[in-house]
Amino acid sequence: MPKPFNTIPSTSSFNPTPFTVNVSEPDLQSFRQLVALSQIGPETYENRVTDVKDLTSYGIKRSWLANLKDHWATTYEWRKMEEKINSFPNFKVEIEDNGFGFEVHFAALFSKKKDAVALLLLHGWPGSFLEFLADESSGVLNVFRTKYPEDELPYHIIVPSLPGYCFSNGPPLDRDFIIEDVARIMDKLMTGLGFSAYVAQGGDLGSYIARVLGVQHAACKMVHLNLCIGVMPESGEEEQALNSRDQAAVRRARDFTNMGSAFGEKFLQWSDESPPDDEILDSITLWWFTKSFPRAIYPYRQPFGPKPTFFHPEKTWFIEKPLGYSWFPKDLAPVPVALVAKAGNLVWSRKHEGGGHFAAMEKPMQFATDMEDFVAQEWPTVQGE
């Protein structure tokens, strides 16, 4: 029986290949043995007293890591994660770009509604497309799958694995590959699927890509962000004019910029309420099986290279198209709405009482509502452009 939400639009020039996740049993057993044999460093003052939620502290506690490793090696169930991923339509497509062949994986909910709006949801680092599938009962894709039958779903929702991440192959080995290149591949994905107009959404690394799409690619009609790192007060007077909550948000952004922050640590430190251990292990295990870490680090050549850029504060990347912004107080850089308005045509925003850097994972219901409300308000203004 065909899986619901898997009907490719008739306008697509691609013929996506259905994809199923299935790690071989020998690979799974080998992985478990490696985890069991791995060692954890000795207890130290730092890893005993640290507060992982404090951006200026020492990271994760050794006790947490030891307990997590024991669970990972003995009772963690990867097959449950496979079942969750495979409950959604997954595909791969071939995309040619400057003589290089990209194999791009994406999860999707395709609508049968004639006027459905295409949404491109972009993950970050060290995340993956799992950010939008994470919670068993209320992950973002599940929110929409549960709320609407495929004949009534108002959106085509595309959740790709960025080049180099998880089930997508890595970028070329003979030349540099930057954020603008990733954005171009994502635009080719969306237009190749038959969408002459779409909305791009991003947090973390995805926020840079979404911004570039909004500035450089005509088919991207609107942009929604939940991170706008780097946009800061330009003077003491401007900062003092902010309310006390926004001033605290600016201080948090400075703490991150000054200190920065392992993998599991980021899921703990950058979120408001720490995710369940299995949710962290799902992402780490996925990265292990797909050898993602060395393949996925390339985007940081730009923000931490010889000519660093964070895109958001630069006038070159000002978004003229409708921009939406969701503010979550425990993001690593919760830039106030008033400052985000300096970086684009901000027409919609919402401030939340909870939530952190992994907004789609942490607050899937609120995230989905924000997308629906932003699209409902602004999509009629861009149709026909």
From TrEMBL:
Highest taxon of source: Eukaryota
Gene3D superfamilies cross-referenced by the UniProt entry: alpha/beta hydrolase
Any one biological process term the GO annotation gives: epoxide metabolic process
Keywords, sorted A to Z: Hydrolase
Domain Epoxide hydrolase N-terminal: 17-132
Keyword Membrane set for record: no
GO terms assigned for molecular function: epoxide hydrolase activity
InterPro entries documented for this protein: AB_hydrolase_fold, Epoxide_hydro_N, Epoxide_hydrolase
Family under the similarity heading: Belongs to the peptidase S33 family.
Family annotation (PANTHER family): EPOXIDE HYDROLASE 1-RELATED (PTHR21661), HYDROLASE, PUTATIVE (AFU_ORTHOLOGUE AFUA_3G08960)-RELATED (PTHR21661:SF39)
Name of this chain's protein: Epoxide hydrolase N-terminal domain-containing protein
